[in-house]
Amino acid sequence: MTDTAAAVAAPRFRVKRWTPLSMFFTGGLSGVVVVLAFAPVLLGENSQNNLIQLYFLMIMAMMWNALAGYGGLVSVGQQGFIGLGAYAAVFLSVQHGLNPYLSMLLATLIGGAIAIPVAFVVLWLRNGAFAIATWVVAEAFAILVSLDPNPAIGGGTGTSALLPFNLRYTPTQRLHYTYWAALGAVAVLLLLLFVLLRSRLGGSLQAIRDDEEAAASVGVRVLFGKGILFVFAGAGCAAAGTIILAWQLSVLPLGPNSVFGINWTARMIFMVLVGGLGTFEGPIIGAVVLYLLQTYVSVSGVWYFVMLGGIAIGFALLLPRGIWGTIQERFNVQLLPVGYRLHTGTERGRS
Amino acid sequence: MSRRLDGGEQGSGGAGLAGAGAGSGALLRLEELDVRHGLLQAVRNVSLEVAEGETLALVGANGAGKSTLLRAIAGAHRPAAGRIVFDGREITAMAAHRRVKTGIVLVPEGRRLFPNLTVEENLRVARASGRGGSWSLNEVFEAFPLIEPLRRKRAASLSGGEQQATAIGRALMTNPRLLLLDEVSLGLAPIAVEGVYRSLRRLIEGGTTIVLVEQDLARAMSVADRIACMLEGRIVLEGARGELTREQVTDAYFGLRRQEATA
Amino acid sequence: MSWVADVVHGILLGGFYALLASGLALMFGVMRIINLAHGSLALIGAYMALLLTEHLHISTYLALAPVLPGALVVGYLLQRTMLERSLRAGQLVPLLTTFGLLIVIANLLQQFFSPDVHSLDAGRIGPASWHVSSTLSIPWFDVLTLAIAFTVLGGLQLVLRFTQLGRELRATAEDPDTAELVGVNARAVYARATAIAVAIAALAGVFYGMRSAFDPNAGANELLYAFEAVVIGGIGSLWGTLGGGIVLGVSQELGAQINQEYFALAGHVVFLAVLVARSAAQAPRIRYTLRRFA
Predict the structure, then answer these.
(1) Least CA distance to A303: which residue of chain C?
(2) Cα–Cα distances in angstroms (integers) from residue C212 to residues A47, C6, C89, in the given order
(3) Residue B186 host element (H or E)
(4) Are C42 and C20 within 8 A, CB to CB?
(5) Chain B contact partners (≥3 CB pairs within 8 A)
(6) C125-180 pLDDT tens trace
(7) With contact defined as beta carbons under 8 Å apart, do C14 and C242 qualify?
(8) Most C CBs within 10 Å: which of A121, A136, A326, as the mutation test of the C interface?
(9) What is the pLDDT of residue C82?
(10) Which residues pair with B57 in a beta bridge?
């Protein structure tokens, strides 16, 4: 018979969510947001314009990552919601004379609302079919908008929100308010996503990602979890669309630069995969990378895109887990406390 | 009490002989193999030799590392340390499909047939490596008459015993010199297991070298020339069939130590 | 009876979509790769044919002779150098790779061929059509395209069913690890599948160039229609791709009949309807109800 092991102090397990590093970082991040809020006072017009772009890129990256990285839903059609958000904001402010910023807020909610029936159409589908279906839905939205006879929508030639803004605000005010709206949107969505992922839903999503059937068999409501994510992402992308509207004022439904264009998804894929799929910090980093490339690399048109494509390929081949994914893997670091950390060890004193 | 095979080969001296020729000299030699399975160390410092024509049974509890060891030999797992030498050639870093070409084939745990291919297609896929030899479609159907009438049936629709026969037949189609069998009796009705072992005995009589992983000790000891018992990744007992008693194997299996009786 | 004409034209259009979609279907069926660069690769085929016909003064069809083998090589190399590594890194990484490729190709084409519009000469068959009736006129070129689509899909089916390569392809698609264990070189198999897929894409590109004018950014819509065809037909079914293409083509033509602008929208609506119906039919509660009443 084997000897029973000598009495050993029974190890205690503690589950912690915050580490000193993550507390530091979260505090730091909040501080950065506060500082950025002062940008309209501290920085020039150009910088503010650039930062607004950074913000909506960040929102898009976060949303795509939420779907693909946390939900396993590869959507090639989020641009549909971006366009919807922009057009809903135009419609409310031009047609119904609402304050443009209020319209933006309502448009965000409308985006989320429309995501619900769309979810019913697409969420049952598996990977490839799901991806193509989302793309088709986005295209359908674009076509419907371009066919709309309402003059406020403008049909195929696009429309503009110039009037509702200019009636109320000077261009400088518009810039400032749009900046704050954009920063606010990023902060709120980041916070919501954070809360979502730390909640029970977050755990369910991890389970779904690992093994959908097994998750369902222990009672995880798979479709419901995915549905929540999808609606959240729909609203988030709609918010990004409204910001684009406020920033560039005129929008088109069709064509390569359209607000419904597949280019937006292309950017989302780039940001998320370069930053790190499935990590919380990844999309933020990816958005910063794309933003920096966009703003500071002044190479002629065609070669700029070749470079962009080359970078995408380079990352896919060399750093497939993205910048943050690789760092996280190597150093086991987490800056924003979304996960759990298990601490083992014997108790010392009265802790 | 455990006994390990000493390092030398039986009969011929010197390591690393090109093993072509008569059956003496190890066909397969594992040297201090370490294999990880994810973060887990599944195989620890395993050294083993299998002579040509021999049948070795690997026994041990679940999680002892037997399957991982077989998969490492077949090339499905890269060892973290150690060497695998087959027929005098080092194959430690060789890709799995090339090992099939040199004559090693694995019948994986759970059969793993290609579900939507027919029985015949499953068999014919295995001609991919192009090894010459006596096994062909007809030979396999002769050896396993059970599956011949099923040749156009989808593999997923077969019963457990039929699938096992097909899986072994598929491996044979590669004309192997070394056949690795992972838990062929798993999930099969006793009568099906009986049939499988009957076929195995014929293979053994034909001179095929076999390493089989088997949980059923009685079956293992009935068909093997040598037995090795694994526990927690190590080989804790090894010896020829006649030399080991059932009790010794059982003890090693569970990791029990008996008090040594004075001789 | 212009509806008949629409259905006929829709079927012919579907033939083109199926041709474009076959390569996609092969890559997705075997490797689960969504090749976003498929359309770009098709365009390369068109541009290569353009170069050959302009400089060697040969017919477009003859230009296929060097273009297709060239495309085979390109596809093989593409898989071995880029896609293979991307696949190993994860299911989503090929999306990034093929997206990067799409951008690089489109822009390089623009750099070397200018944004001008070109088209390929379809030969004597180009303008010819069969005037069946006053309302129905069938262009021979479209019939040729449909015939080619049939041949390609049929050929692929034959290869998959009856050749060793086909068996290895199917086995690797189902279980790459076990395929390796019985001697199949999975990487070589994937490379050959991609080679075939790119060759078919080039073929489709040449036919695209013959049926419409193209520039470096062309084909974005057609790519989406090809994806729709694959999904409607059922991912993993080759003949389904043909069926899907036809369903899509017919829907589009009928939609255009109602209103020119509804062309694409009609296709999208039918696409979504088919998917919803299929999902609903598979939902357990509904299947049970159907069984009781059917």
Answers:
(1) C107
(2) 45, 19, 38
(3) none
(4) yes
(5) A, C
(6) 778 888 888 888 888 899 999 999 999 999 999 999 999 999 999 999 888 899 99
(7) yes
(8) A136
(9) 87
(10) B212, B227
CA angle C30–C33–C36, rounded 5-degree value: 135
Dist. CA C222–CA C228, nearest whole Å: 10
The neighbouring-strand residues paired with C130 are C138
**Do the beta carbons of residue A313 and residue A322 sit within 8 Å?**
no
Both tokens of C271, joined, read: 């696409």
Residue among A147, A270, A316 minimizing CB distance to C261: A147
Minimal CA separation from A294 to chain C, in Å: 15
Q: Tell which phi-psi region holds residue B112, choosing left (phi > 0), alpha (psi between -120 and 50) or beta.
A: left
Q: Which of B99, B106, B114 to mutate to test the interface with C (most CBs of C within 10 A)?
A: B114
Q: How confident is the model at residue B210 (pLDDT cuts 50, 70, 90)?
A: very high
Other beta carbons within 10 Å of A222: 16
- Is the CA virtual torsion C189, C193, C196, C199 positive or negative? negative
The phi, psi pair for B58, rounded to 5°, reads -105, 115
- Report which DSSP code applies to A66: I
Residue C228 corresponds to which tokens in the numbers above?
Answer: 């729709």
Positive or negative, the CA dihedral C118, C119, C120, C123 is negative
**How is residue B10 annotated by DSSP?**
S
User: Distance of alpha carbon C165 from its chain centroid, rounded?
Assistant: 21
| H or E element that contains C290 | helix C284-293
Of C141, C116, C144, C143, nearest to C54 by C-alpha is: C116
The rounded Cα B261 to chain-centroid distance in angstroms is 35
Which residue has tokens 């299929």?
A: C278
| CA-based torsion, B142, B146, B147, B152: positive or negative | positive
Output B8-15 pairs: Cβ under 8 A, ≥24 positions apart.
B9/B49, B10/B51
Residue pLDDT, tens place only, A129-147: 888 899 999 999 999 998 8
Please list every residue in chain B whose beta carbon sits closer than 8 Å to the beta carbon of residue C186. 97
Q: What is the DSSP letter of C125?
A: G
Q: What subunits touch chain C, counting only 3 or more CB pairs under 8 A?
A: A, B
**For C69-118, what is each residue's pLDDT tens digit?**
999 999 999 999 988 888 877 777 888 788 888 888 888 888 888 888 88
Tell me which amino acid residue A311 is: I
Q: Give the contacts of C87 (CB within 8 A, at least 6 positions apart).
A: C31, C33, C93, C94, C190
The whole-angstrom separation of Cα B86 and Cα B103 is: 9
Q: Is B90 helix (H, G, I), strand (E, B) or coil?
A: strand
Instruction: Indicate the residue of C167, C170, C183 with minimum beta-carbon distance to B97.
Output: C183
- What is A144-210 written as a DSSP string? HHHH---TTT-GGG-EE-HHHHHHH--HHHHHHHHHHHHHHHHHHHHHHHHHHHHSHHHHHHHHHHH
Q: Specify the 3-state DSSP secondary structure of C14.
A: helix
Asked if C82 reaches chain A (Cβ–Cβ under 8 Å), the answer is yes
Closest CA to C217 of C114, C90, C69, C86: C114
Instruction: Name the β-bridge partners of B228.
Output: B58, B238
**A330, two tokens:** 């190597």
Our measurement of the distance from residue B27's CA atom to the centroid of its chain's CA atoms, rounded to an integer in Å, reads 13
Q: Which of B95, B115, B171 sits opposite C182 (nearest CB)?
A: B171
Is A310 a residue whose pLDDT tops 80? yes
Mutate to test the interface with B, among C172, C181, C189 (most CBs of B within 10 A): C181
Q: Is C237 on the interface with A (CB under 8 A)?
A: no
Buried/exposed C2-29: b ≥16 CB within 10 Å, e otherwise: eeebbbbbbbbbbbbbbbbbbbbbbbbb
Contact B255 A1 (CB under 8 A): no
Residue partners of A52: CB distance under 8 A and separation at least 6: A178, A179, A182, A243, A247
Phi, psi (degrees; rounded to nearest 5) at A221:
-85, 95
ipTM: 0.87
